[in-house]
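Lab notebook, bench 4. We co-purified these components, and the gel suggests they stay together. Before we commit to crystallization screens, I want a quick structural picture of the whole thing.
Request: model the full complex, all chains together.
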Amino acid sequence: DAGVIQSPRHEVTEMGQEVTLRCKPISGHDYLFWYRQTMMRGLELLIYFNNNVPIDDSGMPEDRFSAKMPNASFSTLKIQPSEPRDSAVYFCASSFNGGWGTGQFFGPGTRLTVL
Amino acid sequence: QQPVQSPQAVILREGEDAVINCSSSKALYSVHWYRQKHGEAPVFLMILLKGGEQKGHDKISASFNEKKQQSSLYLTASQLSYSGTYFCGTAGSSNTGKLIFGQGTTLQVKP
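Here is the predicted assembly.
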């Protein structure tokens, strides 16, 4: 059974460019989470969806960030325009029923570098 | 709102024991523990729900004291494979999947 799939695994871009990160959750999972991890701020929740509906986006840093989940098997996190301070590892995670039994399953992450 | 973990880092020899603590200033419904190895994604270890239960997973166990809003992770007879960063994630209610993660505790087990 495939785990959470993220693409690309690495992204290097220049300041001001648009960046789109992609995630395919585990089939059957009804929750999807986007996290950002940096040394300074640790693991931060950006936004999460339940049944494709955004539930809490209070962690989205600013309007430059947006996330969508058009269907149960796909989600995107977009940064436009990107800035050097957005450099981080972005994780997508999914879970069934909030993860109360089996926790959240994390994808391998996308390492974003903004020059 | 972020839970506080202690210690920040610990170095052990194989076979030694360790305790990692997680404290919150808010009432908690559950505490989740994850381990992340360098360059990899966090991996779920266990969840503790309100009720003070203790759970075990091989030689790794945890407790949850909801009155004190604290959880502790116990690593017994540590192995090299236990090395990594341990995170606690806390949830304040049962009707949300949202977790707030602590800053992490780095554990290094040496031969």
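Chain A has no helices and eleven strands. Worth comparing against the SEC data before the next meeting. The first strand of chain A starts at residue 5 and ends at 7.
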